[in-house]
Every structure is written in C-alpha cells, then in structure tokens.
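Why do we care about 3D structure at all? Because function follows from shape, and shape follows, mostly, from sequence. That is the central idea of this module. The next example makes it concrete: a single protein chain, its amino acid sequence, and then its structure expressed as tokens.
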Amino acid sequence: ALRNAQRAVPVRRAPLRRAVCALRAALGASRFDVGLVCASNALMQRLNGVYRHCPEPTDVLSFPFHQVEAGELPRPCCRGEYNLGDIFLGVEYIHQQCRETGEDFDDVLTVTAAHGLCHLLGYRHDTKPEWEQVRDALGPAWGGPEAPVTGTGIRPVLTAAA
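And the structure:
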C-alpha cells in the first residue's frame, strides 16, 4: 500500500508503486506486502526523534515486521504475516536534496525506497562489507554490481516496471 501523507511535494504514485513492486520481485520478496508512506519533514522529524533519538528530518525510515538476517526472507506462519513492514519516505527532505544536487526527484525517491526495502530485509550499511552486501543484493535491479546507486542507476528497474 502507498499513502501520501504530505502535501508539500507532488508525488507520482503509480510509477513509484510499480518500481517498488519490481524491486520486491528483484529481491525475491514479491509475495510480501510493504507499506509505503510519503511523509512530511514534520512527521519524519517526529519519527526519527522517537525511534532513533535524532529529532531531525531524514530521507527514509524503515520499520520491519520481521527480524531477519540480511538476504533472508521471513518465514511467515500465517497469511497475516506476509508483510515486510513499513517504509516512510521523507519526500520533502529528498526533494530539497535533489534541488541542491540536480538529481531527478523520481529517480532518487525510488532509490530511497529501495534503501528502505533493503532495511526491511535485514540489510545494514554501517560497515563497508555490509554496504557491499546491499549492492550485491540490488545488483541485478541496478544493472550490475558496478552501477551507481543513485539517480540513473535505477533506470533498469524503472524500465522493467513500465
């Protein structure tokens, strides 16, 4: 499910929804639901303060339904557990960053959703080996492990989702 809980930045929901579906498929998680919320800076700041003790807006927060090791899929015991969790996208924050860097907002929004999805699947990026594990997992979706992880690096997923 995709919910736009902010009004400051227009969000093209259909392409974002298709890209997230393609990312779930690329990661082998298409049978699992994901909640996606496009959030304001105020909501992201509040959530970041409560859950990470950092009361500032941010680009993405992920709240997994299951605790899994990186690269493992949950093993639900009933129908109601086919849920990976929720991803909150700080669209105001992302939009501001894109204005500063000149990157395409829709591309970066999709990359950021992929970042959140990786966290729902147990991936972390605190160390270089953990970051490389994320790149390896997303390699096929990005067009290979050497593809960039921002901006046009998401084009293969967007093309597949169209």
